[in-house]
Design a protein that fits this description.
Layout (H helix, E strand, L loop, with lengths): L5 H4 L34 H8 L2 H14 L3 H16 L13 H8 L2 H20 L4
Helix pairs in contact: 3-4
Length: 133
């Protein structure tokens, strides 16, 4: 690397100007690819639908449900038919109260609840006064 002369070191040449951006063909917020990525071919579901009719599929499952040697296969075929014919049964989710103090509060006497309420009021007063430790 060549050493700069004194005149070159003290040069006050203007800084490189930023390149101007070319105007884009899209407005702000407009996608450059509104239809998305092009598909690369048929999906497996599309191929199956084109090869197997729904009636043929149902007949095969009925045949399995009636004639399969394995009990497991028969049950699976019947379940498949029932799910598609009548819809899957809704799953019931039981919500459990996860508040550990709720069970304790139920077991407290009236006197204990009054004392707990007094402490609760005091802690709220401390918070509103800014005296929090």
């Amino acid at each position: 690397m060549a050493k700069k002369t004194g005149a070159e070191q003290n040069s006050t040449a203007p800084a490189a100007t930023p390149k101007k951006r070319r105007p884009t063909a899209w407005k702000a917020g407009q996608s450059g690819n509104p239809k998305g990525r092009p598909r690369s071919g048929e999906s497996l579901a599309e191929i199956v639908r084109s090869e197997v009719s729904p009636k043929a599929l149902i007949k095969r499952m009925q045949s399995l449900a009636d004639n399969a040697e394995s009990e497991q296969v028969r049950v699976h075929a019947l379940t498949w038919l029932a799910d598609r014919g009548y819809g899957k049964a809704p799953q019931v989710v039981e919500l459990v109260n996860r508040n550990p103090f709720a069970d304790r509060a139920k077991a407290m006497t009236t006197e204990q609840l009054e004392v707990a309420a007094m402490f609760d009021e005091e802690s709220e007063a401390d918070v509103s006064a800014g005296d929090v430790n």
